Amino acid sequence: MTSPTQTPTRGYSADKDQLQKRLRRIEGQVRGIQGMVEQDRYCIDVLTQISAIQAALDKVALGLLDDHVGHCVQTAAAEGRGEEMTAEMMAAVGRLMRRG
């Protein structure tokens, strides 16, 4: 257990800087789409950019999921909470797959 002043270690903690860099890049892409709409760009071009953002977010989500399994689920399994964490993870996967 962590103390109130100590930040807990997450599965993505080691790659946090890289993760934030990717998310900032995605944020820039979203702003780019806003500009495209403001400029009345061709619909298909806007949709293509939206698709690229969705793919980038999917890649981030899969990386987080991999980190979660490698850290959080394994730690929980060693503590006897593996089934609970696996169910939580599968619910998150289900939510990721239901978009659209």
β-strand percent reads: under 5%
Overall pLDDT, averaged?
89
In DSSP terms (H or I, runs of 4 or more residues), the helix count works out at 3
- CATH H-level homologous superfamily name: Metal-sensitive repressor, helix protomer
Characterize the biggest β-sheet.
Answer: none
Secondary-structure-derived class: mainly alpha
CATH architecture tag: Up-down Bundle
Measured between the Cα atoms of the first and last residue, the distance is: 38 Å
Helicity level: over 70%
> Regarding CATH, which class?
Mainly Alpha
Q: What best-fitting shape do the alpha-carbon axes yield?
A: elongated
List keywords for this structure.
elongated, copper, Methane Monooxygenase Hydroxylase, Chain G, domain 1, Metal-sensitive transcriptional regulator, 100 residues, 3 helices, Metal_Tscrpt_repr, 0% strand, mainly alpha, Metal_Tscrpt_repr_sf
Write the layout of secondary structure elements.
Blueprint: H1 16-38, H2 43-78, H3 82-97
Helix pairs in contact: 1-2, 2-3
Pfam families: Trns_repr_metal (PF02583)
Keywords: Copper
Protein name: Metal-sensitive transcriptional regulator
Task: Describe the model.
With 100 residues, the protein is mainly alpha-helical. It has one domain (16-97): Metal-sensitive repressor, helix protomer (Methane Monooxygenase Hydroxylase, Chain G, domain 1, Up-down Bundle). The protein has three helices and no strands. The chain has helices at residues 16-38, 43-78, 82-97. The radius of gyration is 18 Å and the shape is elongated. The model has no long low-confidence stretch (mean pLDDT 89).
